[in-house]
Design brief:
This protein has 388 residues and is of the alpha/beta class. The chain contains nine helices and 27 strands. The relative contact order is 0.14.
Length: 388
């Protein structure tokens, strides 16, 4: 059996491990655009903030691929997939054949179509190379504007504050982390981040970037603007779909997959940030790995079903503990139980006596027990007993 995996991230690694657990003899080749071994994308933020050497980001070095007899071709992008001929064509003109294909091409930073998005002072953060470009351009420059008040935007701003920069965060919604926090929790988080030296511009829609010499200006829909030396967009992700879509594989926001992580073409699977399962593109490291394990197992002849991943988010900012998981919307049959202590905020969301979501700020020690409880779906008694 000949397996090809396009992508060397969390999904690709999960697929490799699952294949080798079932097939120790099959030929496995991984193609990746990046010139690196498998590394921790979530920890790039630590590198950006100066708390981690780049060498420490590597999770799977050369020895891993050698031990499992995996052929890794770095810096080798795929140009096209031929589903009928069961082959791929490389951008350099080379080609390869497969019996089973796993597409784990991940996602890229979403850059909105605003004026000045292609200026030299504008960046995004997805890879180690992106972090190096930000640090290189930002050397000696003090004013940073981060567009996007989501997890990565806040972590980026906090990391650059550690580097001695002044960071402003722009968010189109009226609060930070609008997908993970309600207004009470967001207000508490904002106060903590302001105490660290960050400034926020909420309810602001960015319409453009204007550069004048060595400085720039971020323009807003209401006619106002703020100065900047460096602008980082953190406005979400978009799945890398081009090779799949051009091959006629069914796509929407991501490549459509079933419970086996199989695409519309039999024998071709997809996993990670490029995959769309039951309408969801998770964009989460753990979900990518879980999907990769399922895709790899089934490519190797297994019959493993993917039930979906539990959605949770954790802010990686030194001095601030924050976790959000599940659904945090109060609505029909959903009630909230809140406990506030000095320096901490805990809110549980309950439906029919079962935990469906939670927000923890300041003390996240209950994260794993709550995560297990939410996954099990077991009924709970007194909510206060979960937050002692």
């Amino acid at each position: 059996m000949k397996y090809i995996i396009i992508g060397n991230g969390a999904a690709g690694m999960g697929a490799v491990e699952a294949i080798r657990a079932r097939d120790t003899e099959g030929e496995v080749t991984i193609y990746t655009d990046e010139n690196r071994f498998h590394y921790s994308r979530p920890r790039i933020i630590e590198y950006l903030g100066g708390g981690l050497e780049v060498s420490k980001l590597t999770i799977r070095g050369e020895d891993f691929y050698t031990k499992l007899n995996i052929k890794l071709l770095r810096g080798t992008p795929i140009e096209t997939i031929d589903p009928v001929g069961r082959g791929i064509v490389l951008r350099d003109g080379g080609h390869d054949q497969f019996d089973r294909l796993i597409i784990a091409t991940g996602a890229s930073a979403f850059l909105p179509p605003v004026e000045g998005i292609d200026l030299g002072c504008v960046f995004s953060l997805r890879t180690i190379d992106d972090a190096d470009k930000i640090l290189g351009y930002g050397a000696g420059k003090g004013r940073v504007v981060v567009i996007g008040g989501g997890l990565l935007g806040l972590e980026t701003a906090a990391s650059l504050v550690k580097r001695g920069r002044k960071a402003r965060v722009v968010e189109v919604f009226d609060r930070l982390l609008p997908r993970q926090l309600d207004i009470d929790a967001a207000t508490m988080l904002q106060s903590s981040l302001e105490a660290m030296g960050m400034t926020f511009h909420l309810g602001k829609r960015t319409t453009g970037i204007r550069e004048d010499g060595n400085s720039a200006e971020v323009l807003f829909e209401d006619g106002s603007s703020i100065p900047a030396d460096l602008v980082v967009f953190s406005a979400g992700i978009k799945s890398n779909l081009s090779v799949a879509r051009d091959a006629g594989i069914a796509c929407e926001r991501g490549i459509l997959v079933d419970e086996r992580m199989e695409t519309s073409v039999p024998g071709i699977f997809a996993a990670g940030d490029v995959a769309q399962f039951r309408g969801i593109v998770y964009g989460l490291w753990l979900a990518s790995r879980e999907q990769g394990l399922v895709a790899g197992a089934n490519a190797a002849g297994g019959d493993v079903l993917y039930p979906g991943s539990q959605i949770s988010a954790r802010l990686k900012v030194s001095g601030i503990e924050l976790v959000s998981m599940g659904s945090i919307e109060v609505g029909e049959a959903v009630t909230a139980f809140t406990r506030r202590d000095e320096g901490s905020f805990k809110r549980l969301f309950l439906k029919d006596g079962r935990l469906v979501g939670a927000i923890l700020i300041g003390d996240a020690s209950a994260f794993q027990p709550l995560q297990r409880l939410m996954k099990s779906g077991d009924p709970i008694g007194d909510p206060a007993s979960l937050l002692t």
